[in-house]
Amino acid sequence: MFYSTTHASPLGRITLASDGTNLVGVWFDGQKYFAATLKGTVEEDPGVPVFDSAKKWLDAYFAGKNPALSGLPLAPAGSTFRKAVWDILREIPYGQCTTYGEIAKTMAARMGKKNMSSRAVGGAVGHNPISIVIPCHRVVGANGNLTGYAGGIDRKVKLLELEGVQKTED
Asked: What is the Cα–Cα distance from 14 to 54, expressed in whole angstroms?
């Protein structure tokens, strides 16, 4: 059983999902792979405690602050590989970007492999179910170009600008 609620943001309505304890999803309306990780019944319940914490976190973020993740229990559903990529995403500092290739190098090192496919990393980044909070918007192409964002490139630009990163669509 999962629970959901919505939250208004400057970039459009966001749906939040929880397993009752943890935040398991954050999606913009119309986002690619919207709620794809929710396997089972979803009941609207804005009273789930983690939703209050998530809404406060999002409000602080959209106010231009860099809220800490420490008080926000996250439990994204995905393969071991995807979860490892999402862990790396959490390490990208606020206001900074990294590339798919750099994440692939980090993944290869952590897995004891010689190399890793940037395309495989891109697939994991694109399927991140807790957008904004797990900052997949901070990942760019090899030349710094903005390549895809499940929530839309226009939102990616605005999220990066909010963090002080000046990027434009290529």
From this structure: 11
Q: What is the tens place of the pLDDT at every residue in 29-50? A: 988 888 888 998 999 999 999 9
Whole-angstrom distance, CA of residue 84 vs CA of residue 120 = 12
- Can you tell me which residue has the tokens 């004891």? 112
**Could you give the CA distance from residue 101 to residue 94 in angstroms, rounded to a whole number?**
19
Structure tokens at 101: 């290739």
Known catalytic membership, residue 136 = yes
Catalytic residue among 103, 136, 139, 140: 136
In single-letter form, the type of residue at position 145 comes to N
Instruction: Give CA–CA dist 121/92, Å, rounded.
Output: 15
Predicted confidence (pLDDT) at residue 100 exceeds the cutoff of 80: yes
pLDDT of residue 170: 46
Same domain, 87 and 58: no
And the tokens for 11? 């970039």
Task: Please count the structural domains in the chain.
Answer: 2
**Residue 129 sits in a domain of what CATH number?**
1.10.10.10
